[in-house]
Amino acid sequence: MDLxxxxxxxxLHLMAREARPVDAHVHAARALARSGRRRLSWSLAGLAVAAxxxxxxxxxxxxxxxxxxxxxxxxxxxxxxxxVKLIRDCMPLGGPVHEMDSRKRIPEHGKVGDFRVLAEYRDxxxxxxxxxxxAGFVLCTPQKNPTFADRPVxxxxxxxxxxxxxxxxxxxxxxDAYEVQTDSxxxxxxxxxxxxxxxxxxxxxxxVRRVEIDWAGxxxxxxxxxxxxxxxxxxxxxxxxxxxxxxxxxxxxxxVTVTAYGEAGEVLGQRKNVKFLxxxxxxxxxxxxxxxxxxxxxxxxxxxxxRAAPSPRLS
Length: 315
Description:
Layout: H1 3-16, H2 24-38, H3 42-52, E1 58-60, E2 73-75, H4 81-90, E3 97-98, E4 101-105, E5 116-122, E6 127-132, E7 136-140, E8 155-156, E9 173-182, E10 196-204, E11 210-216, E12 219-222, E13 224-226, E14 229-235, E15 238-240, E16 249-251, E17 256-261, E18 267-274
Antiparallel strand pairs: 1-2, 3-4, 5-6, 6-7, 7-8, 9-10, 10-14, 11-12, 11-17, 13-14, 15-16, 17-18
Helix pairs in contact: 1-3, 2-3
């Protein structure tokens, strides 16, 4: 083992001494499944597997230029008792469910204990949280009236199985979700209309200090950033639906722009023209990011096949 690898091993063992033990076989299998994509040497991959056998919930993120591998080990935070309750309330069947059937749990998408509250945005009405595992995420919005809770639909990081925290990263800023959530705290007891919120969430690098979302129409607001993840929301307006014979109102979901800033206020990443896309991009057909959210460079153009989903219709 050369000097660099010795330093890496020392750092990983130092981290491991303060961590909780977990199932080494599970983490070893995940690490080996991803080792081909990372193009790490067998010695470094072995170090990652060894660390995973004693560290809590971990994933290895790509380091800049392939350097400082030890610094790229990322551990998901522990949940507080309140966060455990939030996740259990969000997933009453014990885990994520089918996007079209709230009574059908999808076991391969994980169980409640696999998920952590990664970032939570609070306003004067309520809150929405980005809740994730090492494989993917769910958006959760606590409710005054559980009848209005959205289905806890799972999306893989990178929009394709098996999913991991390094999948689909697009530099300093990665937009993983632009969806709509319902918050019944915004509804009056005598009027159960409304309560819709547009939600944007994703991942950022450790040097990002602030994420700002331009929601269109002149409204800009800062998202909540926490340990490499962010989420933000604003009330959603309703507009007449398309002339498709169905009638009714739909949520107005214009394109948004998301910008990540560094400590000195410098722009570290920006995604323009991010289009609304419904949850559940599990990769069963093809991995699909929100249009405008991905790609190797900033301001990625919309995909030619127009994958943006229609605005959700209000009942």
